[in-house]
């Protein structure tokens, strides 16, 4: 089993200050993202309690952490398909939160431009389109299977503005959320 090192104050300071002089002396992995980085990585500073420290990149790989797209520890790269799978998994679990390209890029240690281009190349749609698709699929399910109000559903799927949600929902489905709910009994599992 690979030894995990202690996150000392010295190492933590190297991480939060992106100290290049510590590159090659240790690597840090973030449990919540499944990614490992060099100390000099410019990605958002993780919560200390989510950080594991390894002496080598191989140690992090053995513990099933993936190399960061931004800092490429030891020249390792995460294949695009795996990276996009990681992003979609994150979106699937957080679609109800305010998600932007910048938030996603920060989470997955890449640039917004590269994320947009790679995601679209692999999936055929943009990350924002994927988020909308996920939100509307969940909204349709809630409309068909719950008695939540349209406002509650809008908030649940990540739309703080009910009128905006209703407008986009009608544009996407051809019916308002209320009309959609009324015809739910005649619908046979159609997807949004």
Mean pLDDT over all positions: 89
Helical content stands at: 40-55%
Most strands sheet: 4 strands, mixed
Structural class: alpha+beta
Q: State the end-to-end CA separation.
A: 46 Å
Give the percentage of residues in beta strands. 5-15%
Radius of gyration: 21 Å
CATH hierarchy: architecture of the largest domain: Orthogonal Bundle
pLDDT under 50 segments (min length 5)? none
User: Do you know the CATH topology of the largest domain?
Assistant: Arc Repressor Mutant, subunit A
CATH domain class name of the largest domain: Mainly Alpha
Q: Please count the beta strands (DSSP E, at least 2 residues each).
A: 4
CATH-assigned homologous superfamily of the largest domain: Homeodomain-like
Please report the number of helical segments: 9
Strand arrangement across the biggest beta sheet? 3-1-2-4
Give the overall shape: elongated
- In the residues, how many domains can be counted? 2
Order of helices and strands: HEEEHEHHHHHHH
Write the layout of secondary structure elements.
Blueprint: H1 9-16, E1 27-30, E2 35-37, E3 51-54, H2 57-62, E4 66-67, H3 80-94, H4 101-107, H5 112-123, H6 127-145, H7 150-156, H8 162-173, H9 177-182
Parallel strand pairs: 2-4
Antiparallel strand pairs: 1-2, 1-3
Helix pairs in contact: 3-5, 4-5
